Amino acid sequence: MTNIILLGPPGAGKGTQARKLVDERNLVQLSTGDMLRDAKASGTEMGNKVADVMAKGQLVTDEIVIGLIEEKLNNSTADGFIFDGFPRTLAQADALGKLLARHGKKLDAVIEMRVDDEALVARITGRFTCGNCGEVYHDQTKPTKIDGVCDACGSTNMVRRADDNADSLRTRLMEYYKKTSPLIGYYYANGDLFSIDGLAEIGEVAGAVAAVLDQQA
Ligand code: ADP
Ligand code: ADP
Ligand code: ZN
After folding, report:
1. Are 89 and 179 in contact (CB under 8 A)?
2. Cα separation of 192 and 109, whole Å?
3. Mean per-residue pLDDT, 161-182
4. Of 62-71, 137-146, 208-217, which gets the smallest average pLDDT?
5. Considering only CA atoms, which of 45, 1, 10 is closest in space to residue 31?
């Protein structure tokens, strides 16, 4: 029973580490970004509503993302969750605390992944993912072994996010510093915060995440 939040700016490596934890610890990844992109791709009313806001790099409303998380928590029998990209505002953090309590669960750790803005630009502009299995790659730091072919599933359907450009990233970073970074203080005050160096290489970051989780166990 482990419930953790991966907290950090766009490109910090949240999704990359979340996927490793899913493989290694039998936890379920709840990424509001992925849920919103799915809604957009399947053309639901909500998906159409958020498309423009996401393209610009702004946050969608608390009501929408809290609703998405609530639905997942209500319909899942999983033991533990990795919250990836949620919560992003104090209102979302409060709502998550209440939802977990209602399900008899608690938060075990909030892992803040520290990176600097310069590294984020390089991370975001080089990011691509497998459209089939969701594996996350990077042009320089994590290329596929065979050009254009997913290491994990063999698919050649590689996708780049429309919002992974320098312009949208500027807005996303401002949103992070204004609305999400206050969560660092919030969780510090609650005694749940662990900060790790997100600039280290992927395997080293995974080691730091594992050390926090093992300390909780
Ligand atoms: P990143 O990988 O860059 O951190 P995400 O995939 O988590 O980005 O999110 C992509 C976009 O989806 C955000 O820029 C925002 O528009 C929207 N979004 C995702 N999660 C949330 C959330 N918890 N609250 C508000 N908006 C969100
Ligand atoms: P987030 O979910 O926080 O937005 P991602 O996990 O999608 O971040 O990572 C952003 C990009 O940086 C991806 O292209 C990924 O392959 C790459 N990346 C992730 N972690 C590292 C790391 N520790 N060192 C170098 N590149 C990384
Ligand atoms: Zn794949």
Report:
1. yes
2. 5
3. 95
4. 208-217
5. 10
Determine whether the shortest distance from the Cβ of 136 to ligand 2 is under 6 A. Answer: yes
Q: For residue 120, report the distance from its CA to the centre of ligand 1, in Å.
A: 15
Please state, in angstroms and rounded to a whole number, the distance separating the CA atoms of residues 85 and 62.
13
Instruction: Mention every residue, 6+ apart, whose C-beta is less than 8 A from residue 28.
Output: 22, 76, 78, 80, 81, 82
Distance 117 CA to ligand 2 centre (A): 13
Which among 37, 40, 123, 127 is annotated as catalytic?
Answer: 127
DSSP state of 121: H
DSSP state of 85: S
What the block records as the tokens of 165 is 């450009």
Report in angstroms the alpha-carbon separations of 99 from 13, 71, 170: 26, 10, 32
Catalytic site includes residue 161 = yes
pLDDT one-digit tens code per residue, 30-52: 999 999 999 999 999 999 999 99
Average pLDDT over residues 70-92: 94
Integer CA distances (angstroms), 66 to 90, 169, 185, 191, 195, in order: 12, 23, 21, 23, 25
Residue 141's identity, in one-letter code, is T
